[in-house]
């Protein structure tokens, strides 16, 4: 199987020829691993034989990106999504959100909403091979984006187009604490923000298809959970966000595109709703929030695939604890429905040898379970 075929098999709950694997390293970790023995200048996806590749959709209001300061290892910048943030420069770490462009409903109608159009004044593509997060450079032309897509698709990996979900995109320009209150106090306004974003996202996806860029799947980062519960009541989700997800689900189904989603936290109560709107795989199944592939399989057998659930705590810990987890979870991949991935992303502190060993040991366990 190619990587593309392997991931499709996993999503179909069919046996893949080998363990499907992908992951993401924190910015700056590859440089640390190169000092620990990883070959220099080799992409992690090539070195570890990962099965998934990505391009990133920018369905933002496209405010000007402005670097406000860059000193002492820190960068502060205004992002096109509508927020100002301070963070470590060039590496992953804590994000200090300073302000947001949308502060009132008038701001939304007069400042932010008018910018959420496909053909914005820049004339550039709303997709790139570089992540939309901390994307400080200009976007390519649509022709340039198509060339990047062709290069990525030719690798025969499963290609995801990654885009914020409507909740995630909205709190970027309108602060999270305000949004959590206003879904109850100003539901019609919130519904308009979610719908407007979804309109733009679907327009960008259609433009990509028109330009000859079709993904194997879309992947929506959409954090909806605390460690113990959902951020909002499921009924509120039904009223305000479900219509957006139904439209996205219908679009991808009509175009034969798979539907994957990311959410941190404990979101078991949301899973039936996600299945109903067409979501096929969930990432990362955060272990610290009580998410577990065995629980998912018990409640929703052969329905929601698991794209994650390998504990970062164990990747940071002893090899014995990590192997115990792998022995329990990896055999569940034999009949599909499981793509190996950490339960978030690989942070600083995880050594090159530890991850390399986990990747190899997991494949051995998979092969033994197939016998």
Question: Can you walk through the features of this model?
Answer:
The protein is an alpha/beta fold and 371 residues long. It has a single domain, classed as TIM Barrel. It contains 15 helices and 12 strands. The protein has an 8-stranded mixed sheet with strand order 6-1-7-8-9-10-11-12. It has a 4-stranded antiparallel sheet with strand order 2-3-4-5, with no helix packed on it. Helix 12 (293-299) links the parallel strand 10 and strand 11. Helix 6 (166-173) packs across helix 8 (187-210). The radius of gyration is 20 Å and the shape is globular. The mean pLDDT is 97.
Give a quick summary of the entry.
With 371 residues, the chain is of the alpha/beta class. It has a single domain, classed as TIM Barrel. The protein contains 15 helices and twelve strands.
Protein topology:
Blueprint: H1 3-11, H2 29-35, H3 44-47, E1 52-57, E2 66-71, E3 74-78, E4 83-88, E5 96-100, H4 105-112, E6 127-128, H5 142-153, E7 158-162, H6 166-173, H7 176-185, H8 187-210, E8 217-221, H9 234-240, H10 242-254, E9 258-262, H11 271-276, E10 281-283, H12 293-299, E11 305-307, H13 312-316, H14 319-329, E12 338-339, H15 352-370
Parallel strand pairs: 1-7, 7-8, 8-9, 9-10, 10-11, 11-12
Antiparallel strand pairs: 1-6, 2-3, 3-4, 4-5
Helix pairs in contact: 6-8, 7-8, 8-10, 14-15
């Amino acid at each position: 199987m190619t990587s593309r075929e392997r991931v499709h098999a996993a999503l179909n709950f069919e046996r893949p020829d080998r363990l499907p694997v992908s992951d993401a390293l924190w910015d700056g970790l590859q440089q640390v691993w190169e000092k620990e023995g990883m070959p220099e200048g080799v992409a992690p996806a090539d070195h570890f034989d990962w099965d998934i590749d990505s391009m990133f959709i920018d369905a933002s209001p496209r405010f000007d990106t402005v670097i406000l300061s860059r000193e002492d290892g820190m960068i502060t910048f205004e992002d096109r999504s509508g927020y100002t943030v301070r963070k470590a420069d060039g590496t992953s770490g804590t994000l200090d959100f300073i302000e947001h462009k949308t502060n009132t409903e008038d701001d939304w109608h007069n400042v932010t909403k008018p910018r959420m159009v496909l053909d914005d004044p820049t004339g550039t593509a709303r997709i790139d091979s570089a992540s939309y997060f901390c994307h400080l450079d200009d976007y390519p032309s649509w022709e340039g984006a198509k060339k990047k897509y062709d290069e990525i698709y030719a690798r025969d990996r499963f290609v995801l187009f990654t885009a914020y979900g409507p909740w995630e995109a909205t709190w970027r320009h309108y602060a999270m604490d305000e949004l959590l209150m206003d879904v109850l106090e100003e539901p019609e306004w919130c519904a308009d923000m979610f719908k407007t974003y979804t309109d733009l996202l679907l327009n960008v996806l259609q433009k990509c298809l028109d330009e000859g860029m079709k993904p194997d799947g879309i992947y929506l980062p959409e954090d909806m959970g605390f460690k113990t519960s959902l951020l909002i009541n499921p009924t509120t989700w039904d009223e305000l966000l479900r219509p957006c997800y139904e439209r996205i689900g219908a679009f991808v189904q009509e175009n034969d595109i798979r539907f994957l989603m990311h959410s941190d936290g404990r979101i078991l109560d949301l899973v039936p709703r996600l299945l109903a709107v067409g979501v096929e795989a969930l990432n990362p199944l955060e272990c610290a929030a009580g998410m577990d592939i065995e629980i998912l399989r018990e409640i929703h057998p052969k329905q929601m695939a698991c794209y994650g659930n390998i504990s970062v705590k164990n990747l940071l810990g002893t090899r014995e604890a990590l192997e115990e987890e792998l022995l329990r979870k990896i055999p569940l991949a034999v009949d599909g429905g499981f793509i190996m991935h950490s339960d978030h992303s690989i942070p600083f502190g995880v050594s090159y040898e530890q991850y390399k060993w986990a990747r190899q040991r997991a494949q051995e366990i998979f092969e033994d379970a197939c016998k």
